[in-house]
Amino acid sequence: MQTGKKINQISNRLRRRSRAIQETIGISGAQGNILNYILVESQNRSVYQKDIEQEFGLRPSTATETLKSLEKNGLIKRETDPNDGRYKKIVFTEKAEQIEAVLKSEIEESETILLQGVTKEERQEFLRIAEKMLQNLDTFPANTVKKNTGRKNSTEDGQMNENELMGSMKVSKAVAKMAIPSVISSLVTVVYNMADTFFVGQTGDPLQVAAVSLTNPIFILLMAFANMFGMGGSAVASMAMGEKNEKRVKNTSAFVTYASLIVGILFALILIFFMKPLLYTFGANSQTYEMAKGYIFHVSYGAPFIIWSAAASFIVRAEGASSEAMIGSMIGTVANIVLDPVFISGLGMGAAGAAIATTIGNILASIYYLWYFMKKSKSFSVSPKYFKCGEQVLSRVCSIGFPTAIFSALMSVSTIVLNQILVKYGNAPVAAIGIVFKANMFITFLQMGLANGVQPLMGYNFGAGNQKRFMEVDCFTKKCCLVVGILATALFFFFREPIIHLFINDKDVIYYGVKMLVAYMVSGPFIGILFVNMNCMQSTGDALPATILSVLRQGLLLIPLLYLLNAVFGLNGVIYGQALTDCVAIVLSMYIWGRKKRKLKSE
């Protein structure tokens, strides 16, 4: 016991000393420790990502993020291993030479301090004992497991399973394991988004459906802030966990919580006090205004819960609690589906009833997440004492999540523009586009779920320098997207009229809806290629082209194209705006990613 205590004391004091020196050159403790390790080990051999994982006990995803951060800061780079071109070794950059000198100096100074007054014979004896201890550490877990339990250590087993899944499992099986949960989550989102439109459509009143369609931009804007806080917060929290910075993890979860509530309250006030001009801007008219007003009013006081429940699901996933995040999402979805018919038809509240059901669903989801943070989470906190905007919490969270918020904001603007154009042709086209938008999500989100599900697999293999496996995942996922896209589009094409009829029994809305659904499906078989290409670019650290493609698709190309098509072809042209934009984005993504692939292969 005394030996272990002394070893811990020496280790802790060296760690504190190392951290203090590293802070003077602006690197975190975890990053500094990894740089130290690379410095020492690279003197005699090549260092790879798997070495970092094994030495520091990091999960592959955490190691990838940490190394990407060091690479982004210009401190390390990866060079192709001359002995095995599939892998890349990790080396210092020129920028890191100054830091390398400091780290070397720290190691040498620590050694000098430790060995003061120690004789040569004592040093040799210490080295012999230390070598024996290291050998014991390498063999001890395995021997103990066999003797005492006969089972593998669960943490070690989880590490091995993730290594196998990410780095060596058959590509088709790995893609399935990663993509299926993501696809299921996407389908849950589709069902959730369809619920209000479906149950309001059962009233048979196209004006009610049009009113719900007109309010879509509000939800998209709420989701813009939810995604900014959620995705940004998740990334910052994950990096803080990798760095063992517990206080920053708590600061991040508290910031996301209170920022979501503050923005939600501001949204509520704006919607309540500026409701009339906002709704007319969205395309409401004298026939749909009162119904849209009822819907927006009940959404307004639910805005804080809508933003926070969506953002919280991202934060919970950052802790590895994907099941708990799914449960929270399911609570909101199930509550909404159960309560929609009660309020819409049972109580005769129409569109306003749909909004009440949505708000209650999000309140219930928020209560669940609050319980999780207060009672179950080991890392996060929603205590006000941890809420702060300084120390780069606000700037890091918002800067990382900002691109997603921009996409959603542009999507909201393009939806408003589309509604303003369509309302000139009557309320039936507005109702129809709302139904088509929700129905077409099935085709789009299936392929988006596939593409998003394999992104960690791509990021890991690129980070590990395994380009061959990276390209195999890229190719196989695209084949899956094509098969799924063709089958889903064919299904919707052959049953286009029954699908629209499922939402509403109004001949005018069905007439416009069938035409619009066919127009939206033009890009259906191939849209997955766009999502996979964008994720490939992001996984290789080249996020700018993916950002540009998303911005073009959601607004900068779509909005002017809608006005042009309306001026030249009228309503029959407008309905093809999104599909044409998608086709342009698909072709551009193939060209950009093709060039990037050739560059990667030549390196």
Could you give the topology of this structure?
Elements: H1 2-24, H2 29-41, H3 49-56, H4 60-72, E1 76-81, E2 84-92, H5 97-114, H6 120-148, H7 154-168, H8 171-201, H9 206-214, H10 216-242, H11 246-273, H12 275-282, H13 289-300, H14 303-318, H15 322-346, H16 351-376, H17 393-422, H18 427-453, H19 455-463, H20 467-494, H21 496-503, H22 507-520, H23 527-539, H24 543-556, H25 558-569, H26 571-574, H27 577-602
Helix pairs in contact: 1-5, 2-5, 3-4, 4-19, 8-9, 8-15, 8-16, 8-18, 9-13, 9-18, 10-11, 10-14, 10-17, 11-13, 11-14, 12-13, 13-16, 14-15, 14-16, 15-16, 17-24, 17-25, 18-20, 18-22, 18-23, 19-20, 19-23, 20-23, 21-22, 23-24, 23-27, 24-27
Characterization of this structure:
The chain has 603 residues and is mostly helical. It folds into 3 domains: 2-116, Winged helix-like DNA-binding domain superfamily/Winged helix DNA-binding domain (Arc Repressor Mutant, subunit A); 215-418, no CATH class; 426-603, no CATH class. 81% of the residues lie in helices and 2% in strands. The chain contains 27 helices and 2 strands.
Return the domain count.
3
- Helix and strand sequence: HHHHEEHHHHHHHHHHHHHHHHHHHHHHH
Radius of gyration: 28 Å
C-alpha termini separation: 53 Å
Q: What amount of the residues lies in strands?
A: under 5%
What's the overall geometry? elongated
Q: Which terms would index this structure?
A:
Arc Repressor Mutant, subunit A, 3 domains, 27 helices, mainly alpha, 2% strand, 81% helix, two-stranded antiparallel sheet, 603 residues
Please outline what is shown here.
This protein is mostly helical and 603 residues long.
